[in-house]
Amino acid sequence: MASITKRPTRLSDGRDLIYYDDADTTLGAERKPDLREPAPRPATATMRQDPLTGEWVSIAAARQNRVMLPPAELDPLAPATPSNPSEIPDLYDVAVFENKSPSFGPLLVDDNAPEGLDDLARVGLGRTRTSVGRCEVVCFSPATAGSFGSLSPSRARTVIEAWADRTTELSALPGVRQVFPFENRGEAIGVTLHHPHGQIYAYPYITPRTTALIRSLDAYGPTLFPDLLERERASERVVLAGEHWTAYVPFAARWPIEIHVLPHRHVADIAETNAAERDELATLYLRVLRGVDALYDTPTPYIAAWHQAPVGVRRDEIRLMLQLTSPRRGADKLKFLAGSESAMGAWVGDIPPEQAAAALRDAVARADRDNPVGDLPVSVTGLVTGPVVAPAGTASPSDREADR
Questions:
Q1: Strand order of the sheet with strand 380-385?
Q2: Residue 311's domain is classified under what CATH number?
Q3: Do the domain assignments include residue 57?
Q4: Which parts of the sequence are annotated with region: Disordered (predicted)?
Q5: Burial class (CB in 10 A: 0-12, 13-18, 19+), 203
Q6: How many domains, the chain?
């Protein structure tokens, strides 16, 4: 059986770049170096605490300078060319690199970093902490347009392996409390690049959504996720089900399009899934996304969010879950978060979840007929690490790691 190959290296300014070669890749092992002049990285942002909620807000002013919807020939995520010295110096299948203008990091340790969860939980006026952590960009393909749903099953499987590998690596970094892979798709969501890509945030705190989930676990009990899955699988809200995963519209859906995907076995994060679960996810998730796009004549904007258990907290109770949401409530209508939702966090749903699930099942069936996913060309056993061959006069990735 074939394996996906991981090839770590560095960009000219020292940021990590990791290539993930498909199990059926046509690429060779060597990669060109980043020949750009090293540019200074922005200072790590600072978090400020909102004393009304206790939540932390990262003030990352350097993000104001990020590229905004460039033409395809200047795509910063495409393989570099003489006229486009992009972030990725060579052709790739999947590539992950540290964000140039991160919301968290690059510092992982600092004198004003959070001192622990108890420190973060205290509420006061004018409290600040350094926004330690890591933000990474996950490039799904060298193509300059598309999204996860436009990938082949083999490439989707590579992205899933990259998510799992990065979750493991980022969870081990000092100060990281939670790892969050996600994809923003569509200008209506706020994307600044058309390139098919996602991101991974490694937060220095447990996010507000997960904190609310922990409160629900405290109120309901440790069987919340298995009980929820059993109830949803018996409902008319199931969109698609496999041996290892079920996709459904939740009972109390907030968004016009909202799909949750849960594994049948308890896993705290995507790194804990096995090869069979990842293989099935690659095709089931593609079918879900192509179904979402079959609802209307134009691509649907969405946020695809992988909710994972925090590092070292309630991992035997909090289950990995994908939550895909879209504000699209019609072919030419969007749901805007106005007074009640934005100001008070009090949601009003526009479409009954059972009606939305029926429409999605029909859309998945149409997509299966008109744009079938097909089977994976290979069964993937996992990940192997193959070193990038460094050009003459350049330090190898392992040598640079020693100087880090």
A1: 238-241, 245-248, 257-263, 321-326, 302-307, 178-185, 197-203, 134-139, 94-98, 16-21, 2-10, 380-385
A2: 3.30.428.10
A3: no
A4: 24-52
A5: buried
A6: 1
Tokens of 307: 């909710």
| 262 inside domain | yes
Indicate which residues carry an active-site annotation. 197
Residues 163-177 have pLDDT tens digits of: 999 999 999 999 999
Domain extent, residue 241, equals: 2-34+67-100+133-402
pTM: 0.94
Q: What is the pLDDT of residues 214-242, one digit of tens each?
A: 999 999 999 999 999 999 999 999 999 99
